[in-house]
Amino acid sequence: MRWLLLLCLFASPLAAQKRQPIDYGPAVGSTALILADWSQTLTIARDPCYCEGNPLLGRHPSVGRVNTYFGLVTVANLAALALPKTPRRVWYGAVIVIELVAVARNVAHAR
Description:
The chain has 111 residues and is mainly alpha-helical.
């Protein structure tokens, strides 16, 4: 039910704006990186040998905290499709850079 409400809230502004295929590439790429970071962070949460670098989550977050955080981040990232062209591109560019750094850091520390 909650997902249906979210879909209704975001579908109207998205339908009103014309999007080109290039508009969806950064949204898909940034969301894929968020999902990769989410997966890595769940591994960190389950293994006390690793520490999380995100100060919003803390060094040893619970699985519930990780899922809540990344659920909200994913929804916010997808909602950015409703932004005008320039802010949307800045948003997705920033998310891609931040998530690339986070994923690379997690891979480097896992070795």
